[in-house]
Amino acid sequence: MGQKKLIKFAAIKEYENVLEYPQDMPGKWNAFFKELAKGTKPIVLEELPNSPSAQNATTHPLVLELACGRGEYAVGLGRMFPNQHFVGLDLKGNRIWKGASIANRDGLKNVAFIRTQIDQVTQYFAKEEVSEIWITFPDPQLRLSKAKKRLTHPKYLRLYQQFLKKDDASNTTGLVHLKTDSPNLYLFTKTVIELFGLTLITATDDLYSTAFMQSDKWDDRCSIKTYYEGLNIASSNRIHYIQFKLDKELPLELDEKLKEMIAEFEVTETHDSLARNGKQAME
To answer: Is the backbone of residue 80 left (phi > 0), alpha (psi -120 to 50) or beta?
Structure first.
């Protein structure tokens, strides 16, 4: 491991806004952010009050960014909505260091990060503790053999259902947002939504087109750009965006039908996979 990475890993171990594989966190997030705002050092997780009801535990909406990378969305949303709490989750601590450092520098006490694997996400949140989920430029896992690793595969959506709030008429809870430069992941996600009868709120294959940005479907939160989106490695501004409700049961028996449907997609090394190869080289 390079010296710079070692320095970053050492730094986040001292950051109160970064939790590495935390234990016994479900139901404690509101209490955690209270201590973070007070500047408590260290925050002893074992001593935080644990509400038996996530409804009582989250007096501020809690928004989760999955595969957060450098945490641009968690930080950006934290600036936009000071009365909400934001948690970015990623495995790579050297990436999390960037967002956590910015949050510390700018005094954003409503932003925190978890270093862990995404498939362990249910260990960190209580039932209905999370209001919304953002998935920003995840690995599209282009090979069909890796389809179950896509973060909008029903395998993962079932995990999210264990802690995501139920949807409401205001369309402010129970939502999942996906931003991606991958046409394949975009099409795959639309297929999942249709097959399982989930409620589609918004879908566009050109997020930054003038027509969409001037429409009533535009969400100002989409204006936040990640580091790699800003670099525009792919030399394309065609960003895909989907917003949907995770509001239906996801029968396991439909997974096989999904497998058959996506087998018909032509998966090629499109611009998004080439961009990710460039991204990995830069890291």
So the answer is: alpha
Active-site residues: which are they?
Answer: 139
Q: How far apart are the first and last CA of the chain?
A: 12
**In contact, 136 and 237? CB cutoff 8 Å:** no
pLDDT in tens, 136-192: 999 999 888 899 999 999 999 999 999 999 877 666 678 999 999 999 999 999 999
Q: How confident is the model at residue 54 (pLDDT cuts 50, 70, 90)?
A: very low
For residue 157, give its domain range. Answer: 3-282
Output phi, psi for 129, to 5 deg.
-85, -25
Range list of β-strands (E), the chain = 18-20, 62-66, 85-90, 111-115, 132-136, 175-180, 199-204, 240-245
Q: Give residue 94's Cα distance to chain centre.
A: 17
Among candidate residues 16, 45, 7, the one with its CA nearest the CA of residue 29: 45
8-state DSSP, 91:
S
Total domain count, the chain: 1
d(CA 199, CA 168): 12
Q: Report how far residue 214's alpha carbon sits from residue 231's, in angstroms, rounded to the nearest whole number.
A: 24
Q: Phi/psi of residue 33, each to 5°?
A: -70, -30
CATH of the domain at 64: 3.40.50.150
Angle of helix 93-105 relative to helix 72-80, nearest 10 degrees, comes to 20
CA distance 136 to 156: 15
* Model-wide pTM > 0.70: yes
For residues 144 and 223, what is the distance between their CA atoms, to the nearest angstrom?
Answer: 31
pLDDT tens digits along 233-280: 545 568 999 999 999 999 999 999 999 999 876 555 444 444 444 444
DSSP string of 145-196?
A: GGGGGSTTSHHHHHHHHTTBPPP-TTS-SSEEEEEES-HHHHHHHHHHHHHT
